[in-house]
Specification:
By secondary structure, this protein is an alpha+beta fold. It contains 10 helices and 33 strands.
């Protein structure tokens, strides 16, 4: 992946205007914007770290410009002359000028802390950017290019929606499983509505300005067996809305038909007349179309499957097969044309809602043959490899990481012993595997996940090697709490010394480059229900990202870890830590 990105960057920088050869690297578009007259569009391309300017009439890529690492969000300024791009791994908001058929980087605004999405005020003077790592929204003055404020929101803020009067901001905070509603006049969170949502998708505020609409996955807590999956009691998809004026229970509807579920909804849009609701389901490779004005959204008593009354009426719900992995979507002014950024197709797809079919596809550039890792990435995101296509690997491991629930996957052979989901970064370097460390063979672990967790078909050897190749290339974002030169702050240095000292003695188990000894220890966290004794020392790399810690999620923050049942003096340290020592140690742990 890194080689591909370097090759793409070298190619693009060496070109005067157009791509020198569009065949070296996957583009993997994740979102797009439409020009005001729909004569052009622009996509952000995650694998290529680029933005493409495309003429719609003939599908020609007019220009492709390198941007910061791992772009995740794009917005068009009101004058339609400039793009804002949130570059997640680079920690930047980049301003790109549209100059005829050319794109020009105007400025990079350093934000840090993993920016994800961006929206712009109606006057074009202010941008709001979600910062995933610090549970904040950065307010950027576009006249001065300065961050003028940071607003605390729920954890893992990703997608944003701004009211038409620019007074209310809705924030999809997947780390706290709900939506934060912000009063921009005061710069404070009004409330956070928790509805147990995982992987909250793109959002849109309705014309009444009273609700924000979005999609999500939900986990019901039941053991992951065939009967529970088919009942919709494990992982399932939802669409719903949250009020913006007062904290009240969300209203929702199940999206999953029996036997042919929906998975990984991400892209979302309402038509301009709000007659249709469009959802891009990445895991099942399709566009979902609903009649919006009479959807049976319920605050309580919602069904486990899409209601029969909706399913039976072909005007109220229909599916359009797209293939690949559809992500961000935009709807044309005619309310009939949908533009889809398709990640695995390396394309923009143009869908006709009236004809209910894919009409055109605009290629953005791709290799002639996918790499082994790319094949593995496709499998990782493919919900059709699961029982009745309810979920993919990516449902639980968003971008290879973790989620915010304890899941009963039956992985250790016992029901009702739920465990937090372990991130997959550095997987090959952190064996043995599973919380109890019983799995010693990574290939066997991969097969078990695809067959026993996904309840899918037995993979062949090529499939297993492809997924392992993808996971070997999978890298977390650069740690935003560590300076780019690697130098620790004074507090982090004090924490490092404490980590390695006999006082805390964290180094006793969390050692080496991955901060794990690869051993199983009994540390007083065991349950009588567990089939195995002791727990595999988890890596501390990127521990700052977690909202649930320990195998059972009993701690929701690093200070809780250091004060509770796993405090240093109860494991390998000499004494309880002081308040100041805990603060320093937390700062160091966040930098790992």
């Amino acid at each position: 992946m890194l080689f591909a990105r370097f090759a793409a960057l070298a190619c693009l920088l060496g070109s005067a205007a157009l791509l020198c050869d569009a065949a070296e690297v996957d583009r993997s578009p994740v979102d797009l914007v439409l020009g005001p007259d729909e004569s052009w569009l622009a996509t952000i391309n995650q694998s290529a770290d680029s933005v493409s300017l495309v003429r719609v009439s003939d599908g020609k890529v007019l220009h492709e410009l390198p941007v910061g690492d791992h772009p995740t969000g794009i917005a068009l300024l009101p004058d339609a002359k400039e793009l804002l791009i949130a570059c997640h791994h680079a920690g930047q908001l980049q301003r790109v000028k549209i100059d005829g058929e050319q794109l020009k980087l105007v400025r990079s605004i350093e934000l840090g802390y993993l920016p994800h999405s961006v929206v712009v005020s109606k006057d074009g003077n202010t941008a709001y950017v979600s910062l995933t790592a610090t549970a904040e929204v950065a307010v950027v003055d576009l006249r001065t290019n300065d961050v003028v404020q940071k607003i605390a929101v729920g954890r893992w803020p990703r997608h944003l929606a701004l009211s038409s009067d620019c007074q209310t901001l809705a924030v999809g905070a997947s780390g706290d499983r709900g939506i934060s509603v912000i009063d921009l006049a005061t710069g404070k969170q009004k409330f956070h509505e928790t509805f147990m949502g995982l992987n909250i998708g793109q959002m849109q505020i309705g014309r009444d300005q009273e609700h924000v609409y979005t999609t999500w996955m939900t986990y019901r807590g039941f053991p992951l067996n065939i009967a529970n999956i088919r009942q919709g009691w494990v992982l399932a998809s939802r669409v719903g809305r949250v009020r913006l004026d007062a904290n009240s229970r969300r209203e929702a509807m199940a999206l999953d038909p029996r036997g042919q579920a929906i998975a990984d909804p991400y892209g979302f849009a309402l038509t301009n007349d709000e007659q249709r609701m469009i959802v891009a389901a990445g895991g099942t490779h399709e566009l979902l179309v609903y009649r919006a004005n009479d959807l049976p959204l319920k605050a309580v008593g919602s069904d486990d499957h899409v209601p029969d009354e909706v399913l039976r009426d072909k005007d109220r719900f229909f599916r359009i097969e797209l293939g690949g992995r559809p992500q961000g979507i935009k709807i044309g002014k005619d309310d009939q044309t949908v533009y889809v950024a398709n990640y695995f197709k390396n394309s923009v797809q143009i869908v006709d809602l009236k004809a209910r079919e894919l009409k055109r596809e605009i290629a953005l550039g791709s290799p002639s043959e996918p790499s082994l890792a790319r094949e593995g990435e496709v499998i990782f995101h493919d919900a059709r490899r699961s029982l009745d296509q309810w979920y993919s690997c990516a449902t639980c491991h968003f971008e290879g990481g973790t989620n915010t629930v304890q899941m009963d996957t039956l992985n250790d052979g016992t029901p009702f012993t739920s465990k937090t989901v372990l991130p997959l970064y550095h997987l090959a370097d952190t064996g043995p595997w599973t919380w109890h460390g019983w799995q010693m063979d990574l290939s066997a672990a991969m097969r078990k996940s695809l067959v026993d967790t996904m309840h899918g078909p037995q993979p062949n050897d090529h499939d297993v090697q492809a997924v392992l190749a993808y996971l070997r290339e999978l890298k977390p974002a650069p740690n935003p709490f560590l300076a780019k030169d690697g130098k620790l702050t004074a507090a982090q240095e004090r924490g490092r010394i404490l980590f390695n000292s006999k006082t805390a003695n964290c180094i006793e188990c969390h050692k080496g480059p991955m901060f794990t000894d690869g051993e199983v220890h009994e540390v007083g966290l065991e349950s009588k229900k567990d089939a195995y004794r002791g727990f595999n020392t988890p890596t501390l790399r990127n521990v700052y990202q977690k909202t649930q810690l320990f195998h059972d999620g009993r701690a929701s923050s690093l200070p809780e870890v250091l004060k509770g049942v796993h405090s240093p003096e109860k494991v390998a340290g000499e004494r309880p830590l002081t308040k100041e020592e805990i603060e320093d140690l937390v700062e160091y742990l966040k930098s790992l």
